[in-house]
Write a structure and sequence with these properties.
Layout lengths: L3 E3 L3 H11 L5 H19 L5 E7 L4 E7 L4 E7 L3 H8 L6 E2 L1 E6 L6 E7 L8 E5 L2 E2 L3 H12 L4 E9 L1 H10 L4 E7 L2 E2 L5 E2 L5 H6 L3
The protein binds 1-O-pyrophosphono-5-O-phosphono-alpha-D-ribofuranose and uracil.
The site of 1-O-pyrophosphono-5-O-phosphono-alpha-D-ribofuranose has 24 residues, from strand 4, strand 6, strand 9, helix 4 and helix 6.
Cofactor: Mg(2+)
GO biological process, one term: uracil salvage
Protein name: Uracil phosphoribosyltransferase
Length: about 210
């Protein structure tokens, strides 16, 4: 079974509380999503492999460490996942970015995929899938299905707020992936919203409602 980790750093918890507030503006919401994604990135990248290399400082030759292994791809689930990309790119600027478009049908809550655009060598990459919300888990499961169909094998899922039901569904469908979240909330309401949650992440991020 992959890892499931709630990243509870004080700075993340503080920023997340502001993010949840109803009166937080679109501008501030956008900034906070990126800041939290960046802070989570430290933890999510903790196990990236290192290799020893010989370098020369102005004083002498020395053996030091640098990143090695698979190159990274960041894959946001549209729309709301886009809000987390810049925060992670500030840590790993050379990462490629793929996109998977999924929306939830408002009546059935079933996910519908409408776009997949990935780096050609996605099967060779360590992938960070990002989406602020895991509610029923349907969108996350579909996005990972889609990636695996294209050969992706090394996948970590990074979310901000998750519902226990959604995490369970994702773990059952894809037990091999690691899941990171900043908060595991209480439950889902009848409309499939996470409670207490933060509302509709895409609408709050883009100001569409
Ligand atoms: C939101 C969110 C997730 C999904 C989670 O996207 O960003 O992708 O809902 O819900 P689930 O776990 O029940 O599938 P939404 O469908 O609202 O699309 P949007 O980002 O384009 O607004
Ligand atoms: N999608 C969101 O954006 N928010 C929720 O609470 C549930 C799904």
């Amino acid at each position: 079974m992959g890892k499931f980790q709630v990243i509870s750093h004080p700075l993340i918890q503080h920023k997340l509380s502001i993010l949840r507030r109803e009166d937080t503006s679109t501008k501030h919401f956008r900034e906070l999503v990126n800041e939290i994604a960046m802070l989570m990135g430290y933890e999510v990248s903790r196990e990236l492999p290192l290799e020893e290399v010989e370098i020369e400082t102005p004083l002498k030759k020395t053996v030091q460490k640098q990143l090695t292994g698979k190159k990274l791809a960041i894959v946001p689930i549209l729309r709301a996942g886009i809000g987390m990309v810049d925060g992670l790119l500030s840590l790993v600027p050379a990462a490629k970015v793929g996109h998977i478009g999924v929306y939830r049908d408002e009546e059935t809550l079933k996910p519908v995929e409408y776009l997949v655009k990935l780096p050609e060598d996605i099967d060779q990459r360590q992938i960070f899938v990002v989406d602020p919300m895991i509610a029923t888990g349907g969108s996350a499961v579909l996005a990972i299905d889609s990636l695996k169909k294209r050969g992706a094998a090394n996948i970590k899922f990074v979310s901000l707020v998750s519902a226990p039901e959604g995490v369970k569904k994702l773990q059952e469908a894809h037990p091999d992936i690691d899941i990171y979240t900043a908060a595991l909330d209480e439950n889902l309401n009848k409309k499939g919203y996470i409670v207490p949650g933060l509302g509709d992440a895409g609408d709050r991020l883009f100001g569409t409602k």
